[in-house]
Amino acid sequence: MPSANTGVLSPGEIQRSFETFQQQLEKAISTTSVTGLQLYRQDLQQEMAMEVPVDTPLRNRIRRVPGQGGAHEWYRLEPTLYAEGKFIGGGPATGFFAPGALPTFVQPTYQHLSAPYRLVGDMVSVTWHDQRAGRSYDDLRANQLRVKMINVTLMEEWAILNGNSQTNPLQFDGLDMQITNTLDYTNIAAYPEEITQATDADYTAAQPFKLFEYVGAACGRISTNGGQARMVVLSYKTWGKLNRVLFQHQVRIAQGLGGMVPMTGVGGGVSFTTFDFGWGEVDLIKSRYVPDYSYGSSIFVLDDRSLDNVNNGNVIQMADLDPLGAVDLGLISTSNQTVIYEDTLLMVTCPAFQYKITRVM
Q1: Which residues of 151-190 are buried (b: 16+ CB within 10 A; e: fewer)?
Q2: Which end of the chain has the lower number of beta carbons within 10 A, N or C?
Q3: Is-contact 230 304, C-beta < 8 A?
Q4: 258-313: per-residue pLDDT in tens?
Q5: Alpha carbon distance 225, 150 (integer Å)
Q6: Residue 141: which of 297, 315, 336, 303 has the closest Cα?
Q7: Helical pair 236-256 and 210-225, crossing angle rounded to 10 deg
Q8: What's this model's pTM, rounded to 2 decimal places?
Q9: CA 245 to chain CA centroid, nearest Å
Q10: 252, 245, 195: which is closest to 220 by C-alpha?
């Protein structure tokens, strides 16, 4: 207590107050696991080590457009098939007409499509205990916001490939569900003109270029349908296999040219990020979220841009009713909570420009 006369603590009173405080502090500190434990400054670096993948190549690449309403709707113009090929409305047989006459009217075919938006998100929670432990609310929240926003983008990246509204009605359908054009890797006989595998003994013995031909066949079919393959998305395992195949392909070219192309020193040091399978250059994108099953994996051969001004950037896109953001929910129970979310969906507006190679072993 302060001196009754002066109101100032005497040296003896200061000493007793300090000893009382020290005793109370030591009671609050556990010394069971470390001998002589007292207060020490934590050696905690500012940047957290994140032992998780954080790259989202498809989410970063696919065009995003704003949405509105309860569902996203769009029209798709379908080609009209004639013996001469694909047209939009009338064909050559009815399009040429005599002077004074009129060409035959043929109504173009449109499809009206719609898909509901889907919510994906995660929670940030800063408890009272965390704040009382010595870190500020702003520091804790900022760290969790960063981590949880990354996590939401990872979940969206997974859904772009694997989303399935049939198994989970809360998900939007991903590429695996929306792409219906397929090439079966286990059924070479179904594609005799595209997958040869019979032109030389080495070629058929180990089938080193089977994968090369399948990707090239998918690129060719997309071009035939009016698009152009822009990227090939595959698992890490399949990407490694395709990378080796492409290297063998380059070696074969060098051998065919009599060794005029220097190949010394390249060995295992070649990594392909782009390649031309005969139908234009495509980007090779490996993804952790393309699963490798016991029956094989899938390869997605995609046109995400198309050739013309009408469809440019509109072939595959994300429609965002509410872009990725954070909303504070305030105090709930004994923690301050924030929801990180986005309201979005994947649109494959031109499925004819997309192919999927299935059961790749």
Answers
A1: ebbbbbbbbbbbbebeeeeebbbbbbbbbeeebbbeebee
A2: N
A3: yes
A4: 544 444 444 455 678 899 999 999 999 999 999 999 989 999 999 988 766 555 55
A5: 37
A6: 336
A7: 100
A8: 0.78
A9: 25
A10: 195
